[in-house]
Amino acid sequence: MSRELSLAICQVSGPPYARDRNRGASVEAAESAFERGADIVVLPEMIVPGYGADRAQLRELAEPLDGPTVSAWTQVAARTGGYIAGGLCEQHRRSLFNSAVVVGPEGLVLHYRKLHLFSEEKDAFAPGDLGLPVIDSPLGRIGVCVCYDLRFVETVRILALRGAQLVLVPTAWVGGFDSEPSDENGVARQAHAAAVQANLSQVFIACASQAGTFGATQFLGSSVVLDPTGAIVAGPLPGDRDEIAIARIDLSDADRAQNRSDLIRPRADRRTDVYRVAVDGELL
Fold it and tell me: With 241 labelled, which of 42, 177, 213, 282 sits at a CA distance of 20 to 30 A?
């Protein structure tokens, strides 16, 4: 059965610690994507208040889950009937989290805190403590992770084994992991790595990053939508400017990709008699 939808990656950028400016830009980008027919919009990692790791500044700008950013995104989703995934700095009790949410017409439907903190993020944020949830939405089964989480193959594999057909990934792709941050065509190495993950775990992956240079931080762009065979269906977007791309996808392709032929069945061919993945007390 076909489960077609339109998915937008919004490569929208902003200076760090410019909370109100960046919130407004994220709302404007989401509204523009919905006007162009999107059912789901993906915004970058920490787009509010802007990507940075200065704990003192973040503490002044962080928001609770029911704060103005999630409320603004929820209002857009309710008005358009769509879904928004985006990243923010979350304040919870005395801790800061690099968080992502998915909101829809019905309100908050998924809340995730980044599990794998990258570089100086370790000095600013508490490690994620909400696991790797997957939700059933009217559009299909959706999971979320954030940026550096993609460098740990268990992340997407667990989401896939829990039934996710689509993994939404707010990112702020920068250099520092790979010896060369981009290939000869200017495409971030992270986009190539995400393509491998999509193919190996038979899921759609949609990554929305930032682009351009803000202070000492150079974002790599390369926002991309990948199908369950690792093929590019939208992007990679340029590294020097904001842009929105919309892809028409069929989530049923994620199920079909699990059987490449009568004798090539990557999900069924797992040797669960030899190895399994354990998460939250569940063996997958």
Answer: 177
Q: HSE on the CB side for 66, CA within 13 Å?
A: 0
CA–CA gap between residue 278 and residue 242 (Å, rounded): 39
How is residue 148 annotated by DSSP? Answer: G
By C-alpha distance, which of 54, 82, 87, 45 is closest to 70?
87
pLDDT for 1 equals: 65
What is the phi/psi pair of residue 166, to 5°? Answer: -135, 130
Q: How far apart are CA 111 and CA 50, in angstroms?
A: 19
Rounded to whole angstroms, the Cα distance separating 15 from 48 reads 10
**Residue 15, Cα to own-chain centre: how many angstroms?**
20
- pLDDT tens digit string along 120-163? 999 999 999 999 999 999 999 999 999 999 999 999 999 999 99
Q: Which two tokens stand for residue 241?
A: 């400017």
Taking only the tens place, the pLDDT of each residue in 105-117 is: 999 999 999 999 9
pTM, 2 dp: 0.97
**Two structure tokens written together for 117:** 């903190």
CA angle 143, 148, 152 (to 5 degrees): 75
